[in-house]
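Example for tutorial group B:
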């Protein structure tokens, strides 16, 4: 399985490209701020054809480039997949930011933040099985960071990872290496996050590779043993 990761231009948000291999269709996960040109280079280098965009949740740093990416294959338009509970965020995620964050964004990029909703939005729910570009995905609802936070499971791992890993979970901002997503933003809930960690994250097999929305990749075995936010939740 071909899986390519790179950070966006702001907030170090990870953008992922997933395909069966070079020369195939691919999925784009969480196209954040300033990723369009890098994505274009990745598609060219590996001869990939984008087929859909997956969004782990609706925060601006994960969705900012979704519309230009979805329109990059014009006149055809790519679908954008998001959990139904975060669908409302795609109407205008900028309006959901505080004025301080909007000001920081505009100061960094020297332009007024703008937004256009994607043309084709597909809502998914917990337990859905989705097949796109030859990749079989399982959809895991894990609220807490937002109401509609999702994790996407793939029964394969990137080429070159250790042999003791046999499954990949794209975790968004649910769980990171050594940490978890914030719960103090609009739509966040500490109670919901604890339930998601207990009922969705902890049952994952130790052989699962975790690809988070920020920071380095990790494994479920490592997080179970060392992540302080997972300690004591299994009791």
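The residue assignment follows.
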């Amino acid at each position: 399985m071909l899986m390519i990761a790179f950070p966006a231009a702001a907030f170090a948000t990870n953008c992922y490209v997933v395909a069966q291999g070079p020369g195939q269709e691919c999925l784009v996960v969480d196209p954040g701020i300033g990723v369009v040109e890098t994505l274009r280079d990745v598609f060219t280098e590996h001869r990939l054809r984008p087929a859909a965009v997956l969004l782990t949740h609706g925060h601006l740093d994960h969705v900012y480039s979704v519309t230009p990416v979805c329109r990059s294959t014009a006149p055809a338009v790519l679908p954008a997949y998001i959990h139904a509970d975060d669908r409302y965020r795609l109407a205008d995620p900028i309006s959901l930011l505080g004025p301080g964050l909007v000001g920081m964004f505009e100061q960094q990029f020297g332009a007024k933040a703008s937004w256009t909703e994607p043309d084709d939005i597909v809502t998914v729910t917990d337990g859905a099985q989705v097949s796109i570009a030859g990749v079989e995905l399982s959809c895991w609802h894990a609220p807490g960071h937002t109401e509609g936070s999702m994790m996407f499971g793939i029964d394969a791992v990137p080429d070159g990872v250790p042999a003791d890993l046999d499954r990949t979970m794209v975790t968004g901002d649910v769980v990171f290496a050594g940490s978890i997503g914030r719960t103090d933003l609009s739509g966040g809930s500490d109670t919901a996050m604890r339930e998601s960690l207990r009922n969705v994250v902890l049952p994952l097999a130790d052989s699962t590779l975790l690809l988070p929305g920020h920071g380095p990749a990790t494994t479920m075995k490592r997080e179970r043993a060392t992540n302080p936010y997972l300690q004591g939740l299994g009791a």
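The chain has six helices and 14 strands. Compare this with the pattern of hydrophobic and polar residues in the output above.
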